[in-house]
């Protein structure tokens, strides 16, 4: 079997490698999903869009590069960027979750209005799903909207809303059809965060910074056409978004990129004069993680091939989220350990400190624990993989009445 790239792909590989060599120094350090993209991130994004290294397959009329999907091309671009430790572009909830959702189930008008500004990093979105009483049981959402004068009037509370404190827009799951039951009564609305009646209260995490929020909605008015699909289709749309969220959270390319950064770190740091990359305990951990990252990468390629063939990957997508978030946590834990004494002191002093490498790894490490829970906890992913993928018996639901037999 010949696994070498043919001439077309070798040419692309050379082209991307050349771009990374000549422009890589302009790359921001991270995908920047946890804050508003700064000037450097926006300029980098612009450059990637211009060269077709970002949004390569999004139609031109929506601001993308307009090429047909070619899995090998995407794999080559991702590989060159991630193994050089160069940012593959902005990854946030708008770009990685809402844009593919709109392209899959949104209207042409919605795509024309939102896709371009979102992929350019100009419009930032947050996800209004979780509520105090509905996290894992998402369909139990109680936030509701009634229709009045051509508007939805929304009332309720969301929680753990990442980025709501700097977002421009929210994609929101709420109850509109009271008579249609738990799943059938939901709708998916696009809500401007500047609308009167939205109150965002930041929640400080163990990083010492506010990364997510409580979001209160009181009589928030949204024009009736700001709905994706139709009233009552919200559960379907929400699941389309979840499908992409799982890929974002466990993204194998992000893992490869971070692995390259850990390897660099292990070459720079030392213990009693020995570079940490040569110390057997650390090296052993690194190699195990490297194996897992490679496995994730090939699993990701399998999903891409299925997508290109129009096949549904089903629960195989959940493995990306489940494994990817666990590997990311082990990677940043290794980085913090390798930093030794420099990895111990931690004093959050706001955004500026993220330029300090030790602090970046510490923040990532604390945040990575959250991502094992966010977007559906590992327990929930295992349940779904077990029940729908492996055909194991379903777990009893809370509705089952336990008590003495009659
Ligand atoms: C860092 C971070 C960012 C987030 N960002 C967002 C966001 O932007 N927007 C948003 O809407 N939400 C966000 N979330 C919320 C996230 O989706 C929820 O935390 C998650 O779905 C779990 O819901 P919960 O917190 O209500 O926990 P619960 O559902 O109350 O679960 C509590 C515990 O019980 C376990 N559990 C629950 N049900 C079962 C079951 N059936 N079987 C086995 N175990 C079970 C869970 O695994 C968990 O350990 C974020 C969360 C985190 C940590």
UniProtKB/TrEMBL annotation:
Residue ranges spanning the membrane: these are none
List, alphabetically, the Gene3D superfamilies matched.
Answer: Acyl-CoA dehydrogenase/oxidase, N-terminal domain, Butyryl-CoA Dehydrogenase, subunit A, domain 2, Butyryl-CoA Dehydrogenase, subunit A, domain 3
The Acyl-CoA dehydrogenase/oxidase C-terminal domain covers: 232-389
Q: Which cofactor does it need?
A: FAD
Per UniProt, residues of the Acyl-CoA oxidase/dehydrogenase middle domain are 126-217
Tell me where in this chain the Acyl-CoA dehydrogenase/oxidase N-terminal domain is found.
Answer: 9-122
The UniProt entry's sequence similarity note says: Belongs to the acyl-CoA dehydrogenase family.
Q: What is this protein called?
A: Acyl-CoA dehydrogenase family protein
**Which species is this record about?**
Bradyrhizobium campsiandrae
């Amino acid at each position: 079997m010949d696994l070498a790239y043919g001439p077309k792909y070798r040419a692309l590989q050379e082209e991307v490698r050349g771009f990374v060599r000549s422009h890589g120094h302009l790359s921001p350090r991270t995908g920047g999903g946890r804050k508003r993209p700064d000037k450097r991130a926006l300029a980098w994004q612009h450059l990637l869009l211009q060269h077709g290294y970002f949004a390569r397959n999004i139609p031109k009329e929506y601001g993308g590069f307009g090429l047909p999907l070619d899995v090998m091309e995407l794999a080559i671009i991702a590989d060159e960027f991630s193994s050089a430790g160069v940012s593959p572009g902005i990854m946030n909830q708008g770009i990685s979750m809402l844009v593919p959702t709109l392209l899959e189930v949104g209207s042409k008008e919605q795509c024309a209005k939102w896709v371009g500004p979102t992929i350019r990093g100009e419009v930032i979105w947050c996800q209004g799903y979780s509520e105090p009483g509905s996290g894992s049981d998402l369909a139990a959402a109680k936030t509701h909207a009634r229709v009045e004068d051509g508007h939805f009037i929304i009332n309720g509370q969301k929680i753990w809303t990442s980025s709501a404190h700097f977002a421009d827009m929210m994609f929101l799951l709420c109850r509109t059809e009271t008579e249609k039951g738990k799943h059938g009564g939901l709708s998916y609305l696009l809500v401007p965060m500047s609308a009167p009646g939205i109150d965002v209260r930041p929640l400080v995490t163990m990083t010492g910074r506010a990364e997510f929020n409580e979001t209160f909605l009181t009589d928030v008015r949204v024009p009736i056409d700001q709905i994706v699909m139709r009233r009552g289709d919200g559960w379907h749309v929400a699941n389309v978004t979840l499908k992409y969220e799982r890929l974002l959270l466990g993204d194998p390319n992000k893992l490869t990129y971070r692995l390259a950064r850990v390897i660099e770190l292990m070459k720079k740091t030392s213990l009693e004069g020995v570079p940490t990359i040569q110390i057997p305990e650390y090296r052993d951990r690194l190699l195990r993680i490297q194996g897992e990252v490679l496995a994730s990468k090939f699993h990701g390629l399998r999903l891409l091939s299925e997508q290109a063939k129009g096949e549904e990957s089903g629960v195989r997508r959940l493995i990306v989220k489940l494994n990817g978030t666990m590997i990311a946590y082990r990677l940043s834990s290794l980085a913090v350990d390798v930093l030794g004494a420099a990895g111990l002191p931690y004093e959050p002093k706001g955004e500026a400190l993220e330029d300090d490498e030790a602090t970046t790894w510490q923040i990532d490490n604390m945040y990575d624990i959250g991502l094992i829970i966010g977007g559906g906890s590992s327990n929930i992913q295992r349940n779904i993989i077990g029940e729908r993928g492996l055909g194991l018996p379903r777990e009893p639901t809370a509705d089952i009445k336990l008590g003495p037999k009659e």
